[in-house]
Structures are given as C-alpha cells and as structure tokens.
Write a structure and sequence with these properties.
Elements: E1 3-9, E2 14-18, E3 25-28, H1 31-46, E4 69-72, H2 76-90, H3 95-102, H4 107-111, H5 122-131, H6 137-141
Antiparallel strand pairs: 1-2, 1-4, 2-3
Length: 142
Amino acid sequence: MKYHFKAEKEDVGYSAQCVEIPGCITQGDTLKELNQNMKEALELVLDELPDSKYVAPLPNERIRQSKSMHIVSPDPQIALAHMVRYYRIKHKMTQKQIAKKMGFNDIYSYQRLESSNCNPTLKTILKIKEILPEISFDIAMA
C-alpha cells in the first residue's frame, strides 16, 4: 500500500501533503525527518478510531514517484486493518454482520482485524478474501 506525498522545500525545512488524503500534512527540518513524519502522519490517519465515521481512501496507483512526489508505505498491519475496514464499509456491512459471516463467536474477535494489532492466521486471511474479494494482500504488504 503506497501513498503519495508532495513535498516542498520551505524557508526553513520541508513540508509534505498526502495527495490521496486531504488534511494529511506534515513537516520536518531535514528530508530524513520529513520522511519519518510522513510515515507517522499517514499511519495516524489510517489507524482510525473504531467509531470514526471517516474512512481514508485507498492509494491512487496511477500516481508516479518524481522528485517532489514521495512514496510512503504504512506498516503492513495498519495497511491490512485499514483495507478490511474500508471494504467492509464499502459493502455496507456492520462489524456484527461480517463477524457472523466469518464465523467469529463475538464482535470483539472481528474488531481486532480492524486494529493495528491484528495478526490474522492464514485461515482468517482466507476467510477475509472470501467475504471481501477486492482486498489485495499484495498491496497491503507492499
């Protein structure tokens, strides 16, 4: 999952804004610090609160890297959790509905999949893919 940040040199330091996610902005005194801050800002937006109504869009794969365009990948666990939540909402399913489809005994087992602490088994990953076929695990792990 690769997001794109447009970076600019400022009078002092650098600033960057995520092209796909409005309001995901950061800055840094050095390029190294800016790169760290871009990843942190992205992960904060993607690792949304469970009751949040906002769901960040997926990256635009047609945007290409350039001198001012930086590619930033979130931690794979955050990327997977975000994609599961994104596609669940796209399918207009509640957490309770998808937990039932996945065969979980309670909603809390499913909710862990939408958190950055998720570490699903292969069996769970196959079930996710069956219910939400659009999810690309290759993109989530890239």
